[in-house]
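Anyone else keep sequences and structure tokens together like this?

Example one:
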Amino acid sequence: MSVTDTSRTVKIAADLNRTPAPQHKDVVFDVKDVGVSYDGNLAVREVSLPIYSNEVTAIIGPSGCGKSTFIRVFNRMNDLIPGAKVHGTVLYHGEDLYGKDVDSVEVRKQIGMVFQKPNPFPKSIYDNVAFGPRVLGWRKGLEERVEQALRRAALWDEVKDRLKKNALGLSGGQQQRLCIARALATEPEVILMDEPASALDPIATTRIEDLMHELKRDYTILIVTHNMQQAARVADMTAFFSVDIAPEGDRTGILVEYDETSKIFTQPSDQRTEDYVTGRFG
């Protein structure tokens, strides 16, 4: 390992969440041999791992390794893509998430999602947060629900005097926290975040990372990120994905290693993981 590689690893290690792992972890998702194909072409294959309650789990890896495809497995967003098919089993509290009697709308109520680019509706701040509860018919106590969601997203104090203003007038970081509040308003158990800070400046990124630390007290969080320092700062567990390239050129995402974040960044078990976190490729 070169001096540059070593200094990079030390810098990442310094950012690691040092909170001791609990002796017993409750499993929210049990992923068994899961793959995703598009029109018969395998994008991700044979992923098996548990996702633990009230932790932040980061998914890292080079571009094209299927990180976003994989995270969409958990709230059945791939169902909305023509030609997409999920293979294997995803158990959510022991129940098959893809069982015949499982309502995908109900799944997305329990498992909210925040996307890479802030995507507030062209409505008022209030109406953005109230949108989900209204769709679900939750009319009672709507004002309190909106306020609570905005408080949990660390946005209430900044917008409480302009709730009727258009959400598009907010800054990029505020818009992303508004999207988090919109997800929280339907009372999910799990929050999926696909590169939630990649379009934000460093100050707004820090606010999002601080928010994740707060939210994991009440929610289970999965985050896709290209930023390894970010994974080191926010994640309890980290999954490293890479790309397997077939002789004919087909690219398939594979899970290389999954472990506590501190181990992934300082004592990885696989050489491919070490090469990635030290910057030798990716």
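And example two:
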Amino acid sequence: MTAELENKLKSWFLSSLVTYSVLVTAIGLYMLITDQGLRSIWMAVTASAGQVAFYFAWLYLAHVPRTSPGLTGFSIGIFAATIYSVYESYANQVASAAPLLAFIALAGWLAYVAWYSELGDRDGDRIKLGKKLPAIQLQDYDGNALSSEDWKGAKRLVIFYRGNWCPICTAQVNELKRFDSEFKELGVKVALVSPQSHEKSRRHAKKVGMEYDFLVDVNNEAAKQLGILHVAGTPKGFEILGYESDVPKPTTFVLDEDGKVVFADLTPNYRIRPRPEDIISALRS
């Protein structure tokens, strides 16, 4: 399987998983209300699919900037609910398709944790610690062109993020607010780069309300140049809302005054982002 085909499968997979979990949760709740005889089985099925649905809602509502690699709490809860649905079906000697729905939710969850979240080998990224960053061309949200060469003379924290649709990305950006004084103390300016439209970047900047540079990577040209392009990285359906299908892999790095990379986080898992404390600690040391 080629990387591009796998990415397209992942794009369809995530949208399908979210839709499935919400649908099965709704069905489970309906069956709990109407079918008294299978209440314990449907309770387990609802708990299994419901936890999957709740996880994605939690990312958006709780502004989560990173997760644990294995999402252990959710994984244990979904597994336990699924097994309980099978046990209840067996104990009540009922031939029901309900446990199968729970198993599909569990399989989808495990695929999300172990397969979808992984970005693959990033050795090909052209952001190397101790090396100068290749010159890249970007635009501000008013459409004015600028080059990374313009950043020389000041330290620069650069974050390539996927767009406003990504809850972990927006939470990562919002988290920077708490460390604004530390960045200013260290003389670090912040550039936040995404391929989304100029208007979406402008709205994001106003919503966040920070004096950071919200920049646009038109047609993902900089991401391609740096080797961090994630083809078909946007879940299917977001294109309808005007977002790019291709996005950068989440990437964070710091440049010194000469444009040399002095900190880099090329995460292999889209859910795991660097902590601002670690960036500041690396700068101070």
